[in-house]
Amino acid sequence: MVVACQAQFQAESGVLDARALDFAQNKLALRGYWTFYDQELLTPPVLQHGGVNEYFPQTWNERRKDGSGIGFGTYALRVLVAGGMDSLALEIPQLYNCYSLWINGELVASAGKVGTSKKATMPYWTHQVATFSLREKDTLDIVLQIANFHHHKGGAKDLIYMATPQRTAAHFNLATTTNIIAIIVLLLEGIFFLIIFIVKRKSAALCFALLCITWSVRALFSNLYLVVGFFPDISWNLLVRVEYMSLYFAMIWSNMLLYFLFKNVGSSLVMAYTLIAINMLFVVFTLFAPPLIFTKWISLYLGVAAITVLYGAVMVVRALFFEHAGAWFLMASILIGVIMFGYDIVAYQLTFSYNFVFLNIGYTVMFVLVMMALLFHLNILKSNHADTLLTYDDLFRKG
């Protein structure tokens, strides 16, 4: 019988009984109460007594009264599975901020270097798949060491999934493929609108080009961290700075784009410049401060980003009140942007895993919609129903 793994299976007291799960049809989320040894790095096969029940995944900031994510620890989980399988695989997300994972005494995955001090630890972010042999066993003893001395967050935020190698590879490849497609589409849009800017000298075209290029960089340096696959030795300090600064620059270009698009329907230059200035302060802060410091303030910044999204939504609604029917086209892109960015913020702030395929497709559709709207606005594309579109003259006419 096929059972939905997310609803039916959860670890209790360090044991996850998944013998009733059909791995051919489902994947297993390794959620629930693992045995946790705080400030201890233990290796199999011997684990000491004294561990506590700790919900996984959960950042250490959430479990500690002082909100600190610094330190190290060991998680242990025994998974019971039905016999008859030759191998299984784990899909392991980015953990904060390095780890080593053993199954039945065999090291099957690692990222960075785990240690008991900042000097002995090397952070590393990657999203990877690890396949392991069952060797006719129906009991899997998982030991996971995590250490963090470089980032505000420590521990684990996203779920680790277990499934057949084929199912795991298919999901990972789909996520990777949609990520690559999104990057290519964004780069092509960016180059196309740079050409339009060179030809027409319209500020909105330049802002959108820079936004597309910046978001393509962000797609490469975040979530699945595809850049690590291309450059395995990339500095973690560089990676985390690019990830954060690409968000700030994207908000800068977004605010500029909103101003140039809607300045004739009440877009505030003061509001735009204020949001741009705040984002530039975060760029400078991220450029010079250590990651342990600047990552602490991302939660505050997300409020600034939310204001930008809300600002854009208000401008589109105001355009609708001015009876610019074509604003519905941009309204669709703004609506998708609110949904996607809201999902991104909630997923970052709370402990649930990203759906990377959903993110990649959603952001790609959003940027394509904005591109089509701008092409109509710049009179590059014509419509047989021109009177129903928000034209370039509607957006940029004087007075």
What does this entry look like structurally?
With 399 residues, this protein is of the alpha+beta class. The chain is built from twelve helices and eleven strands. Strands 1, 3, 4, 5, 7, 8 and 10 form a seven-stranded mixed sheet that branches. A hairpin with a 2-residue loop joins strand 7 and strand 8. The chain is elongated and about 70 Å long.
How would the blueprint of this fold be written?
Layout: H1 5-8, E1 15-18, E2 28-29, E3 32-38, E4 52-56, H2 60-63, E5 71-81, E6 87-92, E7 98-103, E8 106-111, E9 128-133, E10 139-148, E11 161-163, H3 165-200, H4 203-220, H5 226-230, H6 236-262, H7 269-288, H8 291-294, H9 298-321, H10 327-349, H11 356-377, H12 392-396
Parallel strand pairs: 1-5
Antiparallel strand pairs: 2-11, 3-4, 3-5, 5-10, 6-9, 6-11, 7-8, 7-10
Helix-strand sequence: HEEEEHEEEEEEEHHHHHHHHHH
* Helix percentage: 40-55%
What is the terminal separation in angstroms? 69 Å
| Overall morphology | elongated
How many individual β-strands?
11
Structural class call reads: alpha+beta
**What is the overall number of helices?**
12
In the predicted model, the low-confidence regions spanning at least 5 consecutive residues are: 1-6, 385-399
Mean pLDDT, to the nearest integer, reads 84
